[in-house]
Amino acid sequence: MHASATARYDIVIVGTGAGGGTLASRMSKSGKRICLIERGGFLPRERENWDEKAVCVEGRYTARETWYDKDDKPSAPYTHYWVGGNTKVYGAALLRLREFDFGEVRHFGGVSPAWPISYADLEPYYTEAERLYSVHGERGLDPCEPPAGAPYPFPPVPHEPRIAELYDDLRALGHRPFPMALGVRLPNPQHPHAPYRLSSFDGYPDLTEVKADSHVVGVNPALARGNVTLLTGARAERILTDRSGSQATGVEVVRDDGDRMFIRGDVICVACGAINSAALFLRSASDRHPRGLANGSGLVGRNYMTHHNGLFIAVSNVSNPSQFQKTFGMTDFYQGADDSDLPLGTVQLMGRLDRASLGSLAKERMPGVPVERIATHSVDFFLTAQDLPDPENRVTLREDGSIKVAYRDTNAEAYRRLERKLMEVLDSVDRLHRRGGSSTYLTSRLGVSGVSHQNGTMRFGHDPRTSVLDTFCRTHELENLYVVDSSFFPSCGAVNPSLTIMANALRIGDHIIGRMSAGGSAHRRAAAGALR
Ligand SMILES: Cc1cc2nc3c(=O)[nH]c(=O)nc-3n(C[C@H](O)[C@H](O)[C@H](O)COP(=O)(O)OP(=O)(O)OC[C@H]3O[C@@H](n4cnc5c(N)ncnc54)[C@H](O)[C@@H]3O)c2cc1C
C-alpha cells in the first residue's frame, strides 16, 4: 500500500456523528491514544447557518454526492459530512425506544424482530446519554414511555402560546401529548449567559451551539483531554487486516488533497452512518473477505431501514406565530388505534417548514393562496411509522464504487393509517372550537434520498450466520473491529434514532475499555500479533 504517512493509536474511531462523537467522549476518559477520522471539516459558524435559502434551497451544508436507487436512478442523499455528522443539523428530539420494541412485534407489513439485548441492558446508558446531551423533558406523560432510572436532567422546553393551546385541546379531547424530549443546552446555572435562538434549529446548524450535537457534546470535550487526535477532511477508504483476516490493523484514509495515509489501531470502531459504514465494509473486500469485510453471513448492507417518515402540515384559519414549535409529541397510536390492532407510529411537531418546500407542497391543494398566508397559519408535524427489515433493501457498491441503496416500502399501511388518524384528531380540534370549515392538510412522504433515519445494515445478534455484529457490536469475524452507529439495529421502532445510537455508543465504549484494561487484554494480544 502507498501511504504518505502512518501513525499508530490504541483506538481509531471513523466518523464523528451520534455514534462516533459519543463514543469519543466516553473513550477519551480512558487516557488511551485515540484517533478520530472524519471525512468532513468543522461546519463554519456563519450567517448562512440560519438562512432558509442557503440551507434548504441551496443545500449549503448537504453532502455533495450522488447515490443511486434500485433502478440506478441518481439522487443527492440528504446527508451531512461534518465533525458531528448529521447531528449538526438534527432536530435533537431524543426519545428512547419503547420497552416492547426490544421484543418481536407484529406490524401491518410483517414482523419486527427482537433485539438480542433487552431494554434493561440499555436503560442505564439511556439515562447517561440524556444527561450528556442535556435532554429537557418530563416523565410520566408519554403513554408508552419505558421505565427510566432518573428524571430528565432538565424541565421541558415551554410551549409557545399557539402550541400550548393545541396541546391543551388535545388533552381536553382525551389524547395524551407529552413535552418533546429535546437535547438543548439552554441557559442554566452552568451556562448562565448562553445566547440562543431555537427558531432555525431543526434542519439547520446552530450558530450558538445551544443544540446538543455530537460535535459540541462529544468531540470537543474529547479533544480537550489531550489524548485525542482529530483528522478532518479524511475519508476512510478501506479497513485493512492482517494476513489471517481475523484482525483489523488500521484504516486507509484519503485526505481532501488526495494524500493517502494509513492509520494503525489496536481497536477500530466504525461509525460512518449505516449506509457509509456498510459501503466501507464492502469496499474493504480482500482475499480473506471476498464478499466484503466481516461478511461471511452475506448480511453487510442488507436489511437497510430508514423509518416511514413524512411531513404533515395542518393549515387552518388560526395564526401560528410560533418561532419554535417543536415542543410536543404524541404516541397514542404507537401500538395501534381504535380501528387498528397493529402499531401505527409517532406524531411529533417539527421546525417550521421552509417557504420553498411549503409553496411546492401547497401548489395543488391550495392554488392561489399566498405562501406567506399558509406559513403563518400552519402547524408542522413529522410522522414516523416503523420500517421493517427486508434483506432486499440493501446498500451495495456500483462498479465505479458509488453507493446504491435499493429500497421499497415495508410498512406503508401503518404510515397511511397514522396520517389518517392525525387528520381525524385535528378535525376534532376544529370541531371543539366550532371553527367554520376544517383545516387543510398538506402531506408528503420522504423519498429515497430521505436517509436521515438510516439504520440496520449490519445487524447485531448472537448467531454469526444471521448477524454481522455480536451483542457488543463487535464483528463476529474480526476480533478488534466494532461498528458503533445505527447499523446494528435489528429493528428500529418508530422513534427518532439518535438517543439509542448515543446510549449504545456509551455501552460499547465501556465494553471496549473494560476489555482493553483487563490484564493482558485480548485486544492487546491480538494487536501485537496483528502488527508483527
Ligand atoms: C435534518 C435532520 C433532522 C434530524 N432530526 C433528528 C431528531 O430530531 N432526532 C433524532 O434522533 N435524529 C434526528 N436525525 C437523525 C440523526 O441525525 C441521525 O440518526 C444520527 O446523526 C445518526 O448517527 P450516526 O453516528 O449513525 O451517523 P452520522 O451522524 O451521520 O455520522 C456519521 C459520520 O461519519 C462521517 N463519515 C461517513 N463516511 C465516512 C468515511 N468513509 N470516512 C470518514 N468519515 C466518514 C460523516 O461525515 C459523519 O460525520 C435528523 C437528521 C437530519 C438530517
Could you explain the architecture of this structure?
- The protein is α+β, with helices and mostly antiparallel strands.
- It has a single domain, classed as FAD/NAD(P)-binding domain (3-Layer(bba) Sandwich).
- The chain is built from eleven helices and 21 strands.
- It has helices at residues 18-28, 52-57, 119-132, 161-172, 214-224, 274-283, 355-365, 371-376, 412-432, 498-517, 522-531, and strands spanning 5-14, 34-37, 67-68, 74-75, 105-107, 110-112, 135-136, 178-179, 182-183, 228-231, 234-241, 248-255, 260-270, 308-315, 328-330, 345-349, 378-385, 394-397, 403-406, 440-445, 481-483.
- The strands form six sheets. Strands 1, 2, 10, 11, 12, 13 and 21 form a seven-stranded mixed sheet that branches. Strands 8-15-16-17-14-20 form a six-stranded antiparallel sheet. It has a two-stranded antiparallel ribbon with strand order 3-4.
- A hairpin with a 5-residue loop joins β3 (67-68) and β4 (74-75).
- α1 runs parallel beside α5, α1 (18-28) packs parallel to α10 and α3 (119-132) crosses α10.
- The longest helix has 21 residues, at 412-432.
- The protein is globular.
- Bound molecules: flavin-adenine dinucleotide.
